[in-house]
Design a protein that fits this description.
Blueprint lengths: L1 H15 L8 E17 L12 E11 L4 E15 L6 H6 L2 E16 L12 E13 L3 E3 L5 E3 L17 E14 L4 E11 L15 H8 L1 H7 L27 E12 L2 E4 L3 E3 L5
Antiparallel strand pairs: 1-2, 1-10, 1-11, 2-3, 3-4, 4-5, 5-8, 6-7, 8-9, 9-10, 11-12
Helix pairs in contact: 3-4
Organism: Neolewinella antarctica
InterPro entries: DUF6089 (IPR045743), OMP/PagP_B-barrel (IPR011250)
Protein name: DUF6089 domain-containing protein
């Protein structure tokens, strides 16, 4: 639903907002790095808490078609993580799972400026904007075992996946968000944006469906898989973990989501064009 709202906003804004009349048109490439933070929402963060935000960054290239429309390609990295121990939900507290995941993300998006934006112009030197596009990302959720070592969860088949039938590590997601950009000089500008990636997978956290048969998991995947598929705190009267085969472990009706929030510095290689007078740079007066 959020991505549909963003796409509708882009559509109506394109036809409804006024344009710069018959004058300067900006066209050209700008590139630069960005730094910020990454946040995850999913089965191990159902309360949308922000306390586990981690480092993120990347490099982007934007091509400006004119003062309204542009396309941006970016390569991005972000680490996401979550802990059931942060939750207020009794079920999640008892489940007691945790993970971290390094996301490598390539995104192509189209942007619409809500205000005319022309580098170096005395009036049109800033704008909010919205964007939508598609992302391809690679991920591999991990957790710490009892010895404090990082373990790749996908290889353990913690929800009973057979060897060779694990979830994919390369996925597609819908990308959408909002931002704000403004000039520092004719060539340099800053860009702050919040980008959402959703719909790609429900296994960013290695949690999605139900608990497997514990004895079968132990036989097929070994003791480490058995130790990590359920780290519940609740014990039965014999001091063993409660067998919850087939019981809910996660919610597979809603895909996991990750967000990038960052600020970027861009260098502009293009020019500003005047339809009647040829090429010209409109520096801020």
């Amino acid at each position: 639903m959020p991505q549909k709202i963003t796409l509708l906003a882009l559509f109506f804004a394109f036809f409804a907002l006024p344009r710069v009349q018959g004058q300067l048109q900006m066209r050209g490439l700008e590139i630069g790095p960005w730094v910020g933070t990454a946040v995850y929402f999913g089965d191990l963060n159902t309360d949308f808490k922000l306390n586990r935000a981690s480092i993120a960054g990347g490099f982007a290239a934007r091509y400006n078609f004119n003062h309204r429309l542009s396309a941006r390609a970016s390569f991005n990295y972000g680490r996401i993580e979550a802990f059931d121990s942060d939750s207020d939900n009794p079920f999640e507290l008892n489940r007691n799972l945790s993970f971290q995941n390094d996301i490598y993300d390539g995104t192509l998006q189209f942007e619409f400026n809500f205000l005319p934006y022309i580098h170096g112009h005395s009036e049109y030197w800033f704008t909010p904007y919205a964007f939508a596009g598609v992302s391809v990302f690679n991920h591999a959720p991990k957790t710490e075992n009892d010895a404090g070592e990082l373990v790749n969860l996908r290889e353990l088949g913690t929800e009973g996946q057979l060897s060779g039938d694990e979830y994919g590590i390369i996925n597609l997601a819908v990308a959408y968000g909002i931002g704000f950009k403004w000039d520092l000089t004719y060539e340099l500008s800053l860009d702050v944006n919040l980008g959402v990636r959703s719909g790609g997978t429900d296994y960013l956290d290695d949690v999605s469906t139900v608990y497997p048969d514990a004895s079968e998991l132990l036989r097929s995947r070994g003791p480490e898989a058995f130790a990590l598929y359920d780290r519940g705190l609740m014990l039965n009267t014999e001091g063993n973990r409660i067998d919850r085969e087939g019981q809910q472990r996660g919610d597979d009706t809603v895909k996991d989501t990750y967000l990038f929030l960052g600020i970027g510095l861009n260098y502009y290689f293009g020019d500003v064009r005047c339809p009647k007078l040829g090429h010209a740079k409109a520096r801020r007066r």
